[in-house]
Amino acid sequence: EYKTAATLESFFLFLRDSVQLDVESPAVTSCKKCITSLGVLCHSVCRTRWFDHDDPTGNGDYEVLSDLLTMYPREICPQSDGDKVVHLSVGALFSVSCSYDATYGFACVNADQGSRSCEDYRVRFTCPEEFCQEQCRTRWMNSDTPSEEGDVESILQLMKTFPGQACKNPVSIEAKTTRGISAAHTGDTYLSYDVTFGFACINKKQKSKQCEDYQVILTCPSDFCQGKFSCR
Known about the structure:
- By secondary structure, the chain is of the alpha+beta class.
- The protein has 5 helices and 11 strands, in the order H-H-E-H-E-E-E-E-E-E-H-E-E-E-E-H.
- It is found in: Secreted.
């Protein structure tokens, strides 16, 4: 029986971080409301949902940040503020040898586990607080038409083609074809897909030898939207 606010807060943190219960699940949300009503300050944390991109194979189970950013654009902050949290049953991490950090992601290698194999893991991210706030986004932009080389939507070219509508230091970038298919699901291989250069698809790198026609949308620092776009 939990009779003090301090004990209740500890219990909530236990549920949130140790047991396979999401923070937004009814049980934990109810507990959180109970804690708040007793005067305990509940600090809001900017966290993503749980992601499970990879299934265990003969080598192990991997949840790599670069792959997750490609598969789930805008849902994950490019640079996570703090370690990724692996979602598994209480104490499971003590029985496996694994590696996880905020730069690479998570890796469990079967060869490191002795006689056992890696479980199927999920990860989530703790992001900077502003990532969870309303976002400043541009419209979809298409500055290039597929050529003999491929299709390139560089940040520099977007700024030239759409003056005042593309920021030079975007927080994130998302690409999709002009037919509306996400870049994560076209099967194309990308030379670049990041906020430093932009997006680049090269024909000779593709099995079909032809890139789709892509368009991109940028998430920019909030001050870029002031007087230009609506932050949403």
